[in-house]
Design goal:
The structure holds 2 protein chains of 2 kinds. Chain A contains 30 helices and 21 strands. In chain A, strand 6 and strand 7 form a beta hairpin. Chain A is elongated and about 95 Å long. In chain A, 51% of the residues are buried. Chain B has 7 helices and 11 strands. In chain B, helix 6 (172-188) links the parallel strand 7 (160-164) and strand 8 (192-197). In chain B, helix 3 packs across helix 4, helix 3 (98-109) runs parallel beside helix 5 and helix 5 (142-154) runs parallel beside helix 6 (172-188). The radius of gyration of chain B is 17 Å and the shape is globular. The two termini of chain B are 21 Å apart. The chains are: A alpha+beta, B alpha/beta. Chain A binds chain B through residues 1-2, 5-6, 9-10, 13-14, 17, 299-300, 302-303, 305-311, 397-399, 402-403, 405, 857, 860, and chain B through 43, 47, 50, 52-53, 72-73, 76-81, 83, 85, 87-89, 91, 93-96, 100, 104-105, 107-110, 138, 152, 164-165.
């Protein structure tokens, strides 16, 4: 048996013959793959940028030495000279720089550039050494070190130089913390062929110069450590453990690099799951497409069976078709996905920046691993979608088809409905099971999947309700349009199911987002009471390194228009190996002026009063809800906090809601904070103006006096929070829309298939005098019946899914309790828009179908 | 020795026996018509004889091989090699030309290209459609399609040829032509022929008639002189 002969004539030719259907199937695959790939590439590019920021120029180190909180005193380096024969050490200080022109953020990395040259024995051990600055023509290596003597000299990356056109000697104006600074480019770090390109938003300086600019003399943020090539790693580690101060944390470099990935894993996982919507809906449609293809060509399969073609050969013909569609569609999807990723990367990157710190990816890179994965996923979806139809084709009983011609058998909808309902209820039940240790809510994910699957099957059972209307109606066109729904076929079922999945995900995610929005708005309303909020320019989010000079804060506090200032300080902290934050505010200032959204602990004022009046030997603090969940700390428990002078206890007096960061935070009284951490630099100021002051006027005035600060009114900050919030979910909305589009395409595809099946009936109606308009309406109403079934089941699915998202997954993944909100206007809007989209799509399809002639040979190609 | 035998053949759907007590023997050159009104079980009988379905009682022997107790893949092989089938609705493959439709069973059998081309040429000449060899199935008239279907059924030189209402979708003249062609080619290829029909006229083109009423044989097989 010649496989090539069969496959060419029975598969390839069929693509050409049914070009429209082929293109629709390709589009389904391509859309699903492209959306999935776009999100994966955007995630990867953003986190790659984030990881680069986390590591800076330090890919060559084996370990990182850091303090659990606060800086490291560089005096610890001297005693470590004894181990330098075994390890090299590179001290690092990190800061932030904001461009004056655009306020774009850059990471400043200070390291011992001079000492570096003598320390590193092998060029491959550090990017910095191998990323040598370009030499001016005729300049020697010596001129590189001479130029470092410029206290404002920076090395910039090739990416920055290429994008801005700035070269060695160019000036860059901007702000470090709030101080205006002009940096000078003293060299350009060249990218190396065998290493990833250095990030655009990275400047490197000599350590003392950065310490001076930041006002942090003798301070380091970390020490990168590398093992010399002739030393055994185990021996080096033993040496390090015995020589290094016990108060510092020594961790493998990769662990630190992965911390960025871990921190944002929840957010990126969310996006990846959402990106699967399009693929999942596309998968349903592919199943429908292959199923209808097999059904439509049942006489072919039956003839082949009758002619003695082995069943496995028939099955492989269907699978070959899916393999070709899957490959071409995935290939198309990859190109489209890469383009979509360019738009998505900014959104993901900006959100990561806002939530976790600097991530300034501007374009999505091409990762072959992700591309390969997306390709395989698209192909696998196609093969999976075709598997059952292929099997059915191979065991086609020729008997009923060959004597009476092809008939589409209705499905046993009661059975499908029953199974769907059972799966749906199972999903609800399992989702609300208690979360088992170690704390991953797999039951909630299983429950969500079950609800989606069950809901899509329930959609099938909704159609006979419309069929009943058709059966009982006296109107002839209602009878003709809705009666087929009383015995729905596979084609009806898949279209309704796909729509239910898309609508369900949209409604579910939408309710979660609205609940989130409502909760955040309430939180903002409770939390933001000051007239003005002041922070260094470029400061975004809790992870920002920008700080205010205490003298600047003093000056603002003494301003004529200012009544009181709450100085907010914050430091990253290591708690049991995970990163979090410890912060402080002037609670005495806030005592009479604001409240917080307390989850536990009672009245804000009472808690603040308790904290302020407590004996300093027994200090108290409040923790965020996320902190409480992440670290298992409850109200009235004692918390051991690492400080530069050792662990100190804090009593938890309240748990507050904080939707600003997902790492969690501790808030204590500022005087004690300053005493413990010897740091009085504020991250931001909440300013209360004297009565009678005009907010807008004072905003402008203060911004003029302090050009290095961003001065925002309460209104402006609320708007900014809302903007970040909307931006965070922009991609979510986009993905939902794409999912719905794919589902509507599927509905149109189903209607066209159903119309082709009814062409003889259509021809009979026309011969009896029905107009094309009459017939169009019959088909449109049938399509609407399918759509409404999908919509009804999808809404139910969405409501159930939203409860799981709000009640279980959000607290589990982000540590945030949300107040469930049922946005009926949003649900009605989704339903309305979907119906409009359905009708608009069905009209041309119905009009084309109404012109079908009984002779199928002519129209089969559409 | 009979090429096809059936003994006490019966088929049941749910609790109802649609066919029972069928006995027949077919010699290599026999032409048998199974005659009866609509719903009497003619097609069911044909499907049992052709191995497309399994009986609930009795057995079918094709060239001494019991079709009822073999695996589906074995049955598939036998259909491929020893049985030719013609359908009322032709069931030509739409993505194949006329000659390719005839070629299909030979491709399934793995014949060489040269043998296939020779066989197809011979059959096209036999049915008088050499000029339409490259026409697509949908470009052929009903009568032409059925002639192609006849050629396809005979391509593999089967032991028996089964035709289910071969003229049911044709006008009378075309129908008679097809019946004549079937008879001629079956004799030429030494293939036993079984035709299912409800038409007395069509049945009388065969040498034997088996009359079916309500799934049972009416008397014994009638031999037409």
């Amino acid at each position: 048996m010649k496989w090539s002969w069969l496959s060419h004539r029975l598969v390839i030719r069929n693509f050409r013959k049914e070009l429209g259907r082929t293109l629709l199937a390709l589009l389904s695959v391509a859309l699903g793959v492209s959306v999935f790939l776009a999100i994966r590439l955007a995630n990867r590019s953003a986190i790659s940028s984030f990881t680069s920021f986390t590591r800076g120029v330090g890919q060559g180190s084996d370990y990182v030495l850091r303090s659990p909180v606060g800086p490291i005193d560089e005096d610890i380096l001297a005693p470590l000279n004894s181990i330098r024969s075994s390890v090299w050490m590179r001290p690092v200080l990190e800061g932030s720089f904001s461009l004056k022109s655009s306020l774009e953020s850059f990471q400043l990395l200070g390291t011992d550039l001079v000492g570096l040259n003598g320390e590193i024995e092998d060029e491959s051990e550090t990017d910095l050494r191998s990323n040598r600055p370009e030499a001016d023509t005729g300049a020697s290596a010596l001129s590189f070190y001479e130029s470092l003597q410029n206290p404002n000299g920076v090395l910039v990356t090739q990416a920055f130089s290429d994008s801005t056109g700035l070269r060695k000697g160019s000036a860059i104006e901007g702000f470090i913390d709030e101080k205006p600074v002009t940096l000078v480019i003293t060299g350009i770090l060249q990218d190396q062929d065998n290493r990833p390109a250095l990030e655009r938003n990275l400047f490197v300086m000599d350590l003392p110069a950065l310490q001076a600019l930041l006002g942090r003399p003798k301070q380091l943020d970390r020490i990168d450590i590398g093992i010399r090539s002739y030393v055994q790693p185990a021996e080096a580690e033993r040496l390090l453990q015995s020589s290094l101060p016990k108060s510092l944390i020594l961790e493998p470099a990769e662990q630190r690099a992965s911390s960025g990935r871990t921190m944002s894993a929840a957010f990126r996982f969310n996006l990846t799951i959402l990106s699967l919507i399009a693929l999942a809906v596309g998968g349903y449609l592919l199943f429908q497409s292959f199923d209808s293809t097999v059904n439509r060509r049942r006489d072919l399969w039956a003839t082949l069976v009758a002619l003695g073609c082995p069943p496995v050969r028939i099955q492989s013909l269907v699978l070959l078709e899916s393999l070709i569609l899957g490959s071409l569609g995935s290939f198309l999807g990859i190109g489209l996905g890469w383009l979509l990723a360019q738009g998505a990367v900014r959104g993901v990157s900006q959100t990561l920046d806002a939530l976790y710190g600097a991530s300034a990816a501007r374009q999505a890179n091409f990762y072959w691993g992700e591309v390969g994965f997306a390709f395989v996923l698209g192909l696998a979806t196609c093969l999976l979608a075709a598997w059952i139809p292929a099997r059915r084709a191979s065991i086609s009983s020729p008997i009923q088809f060959l004597s009476r011609g092809s008939e589409t058998q209705p499905i046993r909808w009661t059975r499908v409905f029953g199974i769907g309902s059972a799966i749906f209820i199972f999903g609800l039940a399992v989702a609300y099971l208690p979360t088992l240790p170690p704390g991953v809510a797999w039951h909630a994910y299983l429950g969500s999947f079950s609800i989606i699957l069950g809901g899509s099957l329930v959609a099938v059972g909704c159609m006979p309700l419309f069929g009943l209307i058709g059966k009982t109606s006296q109107t002839w066109w209602l009878k003709l349009s809705l009666r087929p729904l009383s015995r729905p076929t596979g084609r009806h079922a898949f279209a309704a199911a796909a729509l239910a999945v898309a609508i369900g995900m949209t409604v579910g995610m939408g309710i979660m987002v609205k609940s989130f929005e409502g909760t955040v708005q309430a939180w903002i309303g409770t939390s933001l009471h000051a007239d003005l909020y002041i922070a260094p320019i470029g400061a975004v989010g809790a992870a920002s390194k920008h700080r205010l000079d205490p003298k600047t804060a003093d000056a603002i506090e003494q301003d004529v228009a200012v009544e009181a200032v709450d100085r907010f300080q914050i430091l990253p902290i290591d708690m049991n190996g995970s990163s979090s934050f410890i912060g402080a505010g002037d609670l005495a200032v806030e005592l009479s002026r604001r409240t917080m959204m307390m989850v536990e602990g009672g009245d804000t004022k009472a808690i603040f009063k308790d904290i302020i009046e407590r004996d300093v030997s027994k200090p108290g603090a409040i923790i965020s809800e996320t902190f409480s969940r992440r670290f298992g700390v409850r109200l009235n428990q004692s918390l051991l906090v690492p400080t530069p002078s050792g662990g100190k206890k804090l009593e938890v007096l309240g748990i507050f809601a904080d939707y600003g960061n997902e790492r969690g935070s501790i808030i204590m009284h500022r005087p004690i904070f300053v005493d413990w951490f010897k740091d009085d630099r504020s991250a931001s100021l909440a300013v209360y103006l004297k009565p009678g002051s005009q907010v807008d006027v004072e905003t402008k005035r203060l911004a003029g006096i302090y050009p290095g600060l961003q001065v925002r009114s309460n209104r402006s900050l609320r708007d900014e929070v809302s903007r970040i919030f909307n931006q965070t979910f922009a991609i979510t909305y986009a993905l939902e829309i794409i999912g719905c589009i794919v589902a509507v395409i599927g509905l149109v595809q189903a209607l066209l298939g159903l119309a082709l099946k009814r062409r003889n009936e259509i021809w009979s109606l026309r011969s009896l005098g029905a107009t094309e308009r009459d017939i169009s309406w019959i088909l449109i109403i049938e399509g609407l019946g399918i759509a409404l079934s999908g919509l009804a089941a999808g809404t139910l699915l969405g409501l159930a899914l939203s409860r799981i998202l709000v009640d279980i997954l959000n607290p589990q993944v982000f540590g945030w309790t949300l107040k469930f909100v049922l946005p009926w206007s949003y649900i009605l809007m989704v339903a309305g828009l979907s119906l409009v989209a359905v009708v608009l799509s069905l009209i041309p399809a119905a009009r084309w179908s109404a012109q079908l002639k009984a002779d199928r040979k002519i129209e089969e190609g559409a | 020795m009979p090429v096809l035998s059936a003994r006490r053949l019966g088929k049941r759907y749910a609790e109802r026996w649609v066919l029972s007590g069928i006995d027949l023997d077919l010699e290599p050159s026999d032409r048998l018509a199974i005659l009866g009104p609509s719903g009497c079980g003619k097609t069911t009988l044909l499907n049992l004889l052709g191995g497309l379905d399994r009986p609930d009682e009795g057995c079918v022997m094709l060239e001494n091989q019991d079709l009822t107790n073999i695996t589906p893949s074995e049955r598939s092989r036998i259909r491929r090699e020893r049985i030719g089938t013609i359908f009322q609705f032709f069931h030509l493959i739409p993505t194949l030309t006329a000659s390719e439709n005839i070629e299909l069973p030979l491709q399934l059998l793995g014949w060489s290209d040269s043998k296939i081309q020779e066989r197809v040429k011979t059959l096209l000449a036999s049915i008088g459609l050499e000029a339409r060899a490259h026409a697509w199935a949908h470009e052929l008239s009903g009568g032409e399609q059925q002639r192609i279907a006849v050629a396809r059924a005979l391509a593999s030189k089967p032991a028996i040829l089964l035709a289910d209402e071969p003229t049911g979708n044709l006008d009378q003249a075309s129908g008679l032509n097809i019946l004549g062609l079937l008879s001629k080619l079956a004799t030429q290829e030494s293939t036993a022929l079984v035709i299912v029909t409800h038409s007395e006229v069509a049945a009388k083109t065969c040498q034997k008639i088996l009359r079916l009423v309500d799934g049972k044989m009416q008397g014994s097989i009638e031999v037409i002189p």
